[in-house]
Design brief:
globular
Length: about 180
Amino acid sequence: MALRLLLVVAVVVVAAASCRAGLADPASNGPRYAVETGRRDGKVSAKFDADNDLPPPSSNIVDLKTGKGVQDPSLDKAYAASLREECEPGFKNDTTPVVMDPTSPYEFDLSYYRHVYRDTGLFLSDQALMDDRWTREYVERMAAAASPDEFFADYAVAMTNMGRLEVLTGDSGEIRET
């Protein structure tokens, strides 16, 4: 029974707790925050649902999409060339691993925002943060920040809020053990 309870854990809680655990690693220099547990969740997780319900990394701020493999024209040309070099010639799928943050790939820091600010964000959805006045101001502030404190606080709030999305109520789903 104990093993069964350990195996029946909400995907959202596992993801949030895993994310928090990864950031808790002193080497990551990430923030510390509480993860809410005990939410009512569905009994089935399906790749199809994730693929259809979550925006792909190619989404931009206004939810526009480009064709697969189309280069974002705002992407820094030298960075685009370096990304092309990482892909094998004639490679026909999109599974080549690429480091999202070449400056500090194993640290949770503000380097991401500095890359987006310099038009070297890896995903169109990241680079699109510069297209909107509100998100651009945030990127500019984080890129220039001397300390990650504001970002860490905002990140903790965002992770908590995402864990509260589409929580089932009443008799729907189940509250899974943690």
